[in-house]
Design a protein that fits this description.
Blueprint (H helix, E strand, L loop, with lengths): L1 H19 L8 H32 L6 E3 L1 E3 L1 E17 L2 E4 L5 E6 L6 E2 L4 E5 L2 H29 L5 H26 L2 E3 L4 E6 L6 E2 L6 E4 L4 E8 L11 E6 L4 E10 L9 E7 L11 E18 L4 E2 L7 E7 L4 E8 L1 E5 L3 E6 L6 E3 L11 E4 L3
Parallel strand pairs: 1-23
Antiparallel strand pairs: 2-22, 3-12, 3-16, 4-11, 5-7, 5-10, 6-9, 7-8, 9-11, 12-15, 13-14, 13-16, 14-15, 16-21, 17-18, 18-19, 19-23, 20-21
Helix pairs in contact: 1-2, 3-4
Length: 382
């Protein structure tokens, strides 16, 4: 091997010497250009031969002590960045029901776990006094309507005074409004289901006193389910509606994919977060207030050059000055070269590289902390 390399170098040197002393150097431009190209080719061959000879001589030098390093081949591939947050299941149809008026609970029409339809009366308060008042108003209204009808007929015939007609009309209309008011008050003594669902819990018992602000029952349904997450404001520009997320409901063993349906525009002054929502399908598997671990992918590239974070060094000048060491030339022995990097997205274990190295560059891995630029190192395999 050594003889072959020396022979190649000798032949190339002889050719260069011969060409350099040839009388053809005084020829025309075309001949000179051809000679130049030939000489460049020969010089390249000589450089390669010399490099190989020097590398082999260095390898055979038993007195030299080289720093052993391992190399990592920079390669391109699929790269993504994401983060994990926790979300809570919310429902538009999970409500606590409160009485609108005060009174003793006369009747509970439901029990926990019962399915009910929208409009079903769940709780009735004692309304005997109001019902008596309602019956009285209805009787007065019937009389007032009879008198009003008679006065109207007489007035239409030109008989009777206008004052009597207006009095009868006013009395009739006043009692109609009073009837509506009393009926509304009677309705406030009943708690009805605002939508179809399941009575999750009943908080009161018959005979107890109820008042506004005291929850009587809780009604839930599978409609309007969504997962709400609070995300740090640093991700505000990287979160968009339609982005895919991976949800893990560990408590029930459900893993599913969803899409961000809304991104809040308000930053909480306390937590410095904004609200992100993912709509959920109507299913009995999801329950209000259930927790889920959510992986949000905020960056993805099908072809990106990236390196493990352990290979990227930071200059004392600050975080904006990052670099790697690359081994140049040779298969086993190489010269250390520093390459300043332009970084892209920083992931958990890898970082996207926007500039500084190319695909195929041999980045020093093990031994990276003990080498210096222009130093000769020896590549080993682990």
């Amino acid at each position: 091997m050594k003889k072959s390399l020396l022979f190649t170098a000798a032949v190339a040197a002889a050719a260069l010497t011969s060409c350099g002393t040839s009388d053809s150097a005084t020829g025309d431009a075309a001949q000179l250009l051809a000679q130049r190209d030939s000489l460049e080719t020969l010089r390249s061959q000589v450089d390669v031969a010399l490099r190989d000879v020097n590398e082999r001589l260095t390898e055979l030098d038993t007195t030299a002590q080289w720093s052993n390093v391992t190399l990592y081949g920079a390669a391109s591939g699929a790269f993504e960045h994401g983060f994990n947050v926790y979300g809570t299941v919310r429902s538009d149809q999970s409500v606590s029901l409160y009485p609108e008026s005060a009174g003793r609970i006369a009747k509970l029409n439901v029990r926990a776990g019962q399915q009910v339809a929208a409009g079903t009366v769940l709780v009735e308060l004692d309304n005997q006094v109001m019902r008596s008042s309602l019956a009285e108003v209805k009787t007065q209204l019937e009389l007032a309507q009879t008198l009003y009808d008679k006065q109207k007929r007489l007035w239409d015939q030109g008989v009777g005074s206008e004052v009597q007609y207006l009095q009868a009309k006013t009395q009739y209309e006043s009692l109609k409004k009073r009837l509506s008011s009393v009926e509304a008050q009677v309705g406030m003594t009943q708690i009805r289901a605002p939508f179809s669902g399941t009575v999750d819990e009943v908080f009161m018992r018959e005979g107890e006193y109820a008042a506004p602000g005291m929850a009587a029952a809780r009604l839930i349904s599978n409609g309007g389910l969504r997962l709400e997450m609070d995300i740090p404001e640093s991700y505000l520009t990287r979160i968009k509606t339609g982005q895919k997320v991976l949800m893990d409901f560990n408590s029930v063993g459900i893993k599913s994919e969803g899409s961000i349906s809304s991104v809040g525009g308000f930053i909480s002054p306390d937590s410095r977060t904004f609200r992100v929502t993912v709509n959920l399908p109507n299913s009995n598997q999801y329950k209000p207030n259930m927790l889920a671990s959510v992986y949000v992918r905020d960056y993805q590239s099908d072809s990106a050059l990236f390196l493990p974070n352990r290979l990227i060094l930071q200059d004392r000048k600050g975080s904006n000055y990052t670099y790697v060491y690359v081994a140049k030339e040779g298969s086993q022995l190489g010269t250390v070269e520093r390459r300043d990097l332009a970084l892209g997205v920083v992931g958990g274990e890898t970082t996207e590289i926007k500039g500084g190295i190319l695909t195929g560059d041999r980045v020093i891995d093990r031994g990276i902390r003990s080498v210096q630029p222009k130093q000769t190192v020896k590549a080993i395999t682990e």
